[in-house]
Amino acid sequence: xxxxxxxxxxxxxxxxxxxxxxxxxxxxxxxxxxxxxxxxxxxxxxxxxxxxxxxxxxxxxxxxxxxxxxxxxxxxxxxxxxxxxxxxxxxxxxxxxxxxxxxxxxxxxxxxxxxxxxxxxxxxxxxxxxxxxxxxxxxxxxxxxxxxxxxxxxxxxxxxxxxxxxxxxxxxxxxxxxxxxxxxxxxxxxxxxxxxxxxxxxxxxxxxxxxxxxxxxxxxxxxxxxxxxxxxxxxxxxxxxxxxxxxxxxxxxxxxxxxxxxxxxxxxxxxxxxxxxxxxxxxxxxxxxxxxxxxxxxxxxxxxxxxxxxxxxxxxxxxxxxxxxxxxxxxxxxxxxxxxxxxxxxxxxxxxxxx
Length: 355
Ligand code: KG4
Ligand code: ZN
What we know:
Layout: E1 5-10, E2 15-22, E3 26-34, H1 36-40, H2 47-69, E4 79-85, H3 89-106, E5 110-114, H4 115-121, E6 140-145, E7 150-157, E8 160-166, H5 172-182, H6 189-198, H7 221-234, H8 251-280, E9 284-288, H9 295-308, E10 312-313, H10 317-320, H11 325-336
The structure holds 5'-O-[(R)-(carboxyoxy)(hydroxy)phosphoryl]adenosine and zinc ion.
């Protein structure tokens, strides 16, 4: 009898992850080896370094997932799901190659999954001991905000996406990372900015908002320039100065600049998502991607959703950032819908969400 269990593999960026998920919801085991420390030395991801770390960790992570899931033999699962894109080509290839080998040796179907739909499907996940809770209700709107992507989609049903808007330049997480670096904070910038902002005692500074008219599109590239100018001013340097080193800022300035930057990003993201929910007649709201781990963003959207009388589903922070359980959740629906890949499956670094 079918177990409804999917073995899922994720390696699109800088987390090596393997999970076993039951019927698209219940996490049986989820293991993530993060490369954050490795990349903090360079202040960002070096693709060759990331791919090599995936090679180093993929098998230990797989073994750990199998132990935790109490699975003797991989042929006990229904299928192997793997992220085919978008992401870094070399990193994706490591996961794809492992998933192919497993599927082939255990005689299992191979199911390709889009990393972006994985971030949306994280909202369906339940931790191993977590009590059952209702799944997000369709139609819904989802905001995915990560280091590589920022977009709003409408979903009428499983696997059916209508793109409402997306960033025209940087992703929100990328803006957090770049501004974090300008402020002399550690990598990745998102959590560091959130922590610094919480320490702000005055809130007098203001960063611009790119509203992009009435659209649901986003633009965050201007924030980096605004941040440069404000950091220069705080250091008593001319706005176009090339010698900016956020390490020289007073702690109070870092906190206030971090707060003002975060306020701008949160304002734009939450306003657009809530407007999309209102005007599309959504019955629930979903938030996902690494930036959704931001407590201030979550609170702002939660308050707006409550005002609209709509349930908001946000995965816990560890399921907002990259993991394989979300690939297992999306993979289950892809598997049920008949999606299959053969041994020719290749990495698709620029894959879009099918609309
Ligand atoms: O989804 P993710 O793990 O990887 C991608 O698919 O990109 O997202 C990583 C991004 C990074 O840019 C990181 O700075 C951001 O998520 N991030 C946060 C927070 N935690 C992670 N941004 C704001 N606040 C946070 N607490
Ligand atoms: Zn991601």
